[in-house]
Amino acid sequence: MFVLYCAVCDRRTLLGVDEVDWVENLTRGVISVSGHCPLGHDAVILTGDAFTPHADPRYFGPAPRVWTKPVHRLRGWLRTRFEMSRDLPGPFYRF
Predict the structure, then answer these.
(1) Is the separation of the CB atoms in 7 and 42 below 8 Å?
(2) Where are the domains of the chain?
(3) Which pLDDT tens digit goes with each residue over 55-64?
(4) pTM of the model
(5) What count of other Cβ atoms lies within 10 Å of the Cβ of residue 60?
(6) What is the residue-wise DSSP string for the chain?
């Protein structure tokens, strides 16, 4: 089954396999399916491998966790040495 959009009727309908008039392989990965909407208007559907989403080849996944343990150790060491406070120092207060 295909979802067929008719520009004349301005609506989408389902096109069954038995309602397909013509199938043509245009280029590699592009297939043209011709049919008619329920009111008899001609419509064409472009489908194929070129229209399916693929993973981005530039994305290599998350960064390796090489620095995870050293960063956690450094964060723990800094927490023990310095007090974490969100209060503003005295010079920043307005009296």
Answers:
(1) no
(2) 2-51+61-85
(3) 878 877 776 7
(4) 0.52
(5) 7
(6) -EEEEETTTTEEEEE-GGG--EEEEEETTEEEEEEE-TTS-EEEEEESGGGS----TT---SPP-SSHHHHHHHHHHHHHHS----SPPGGG---
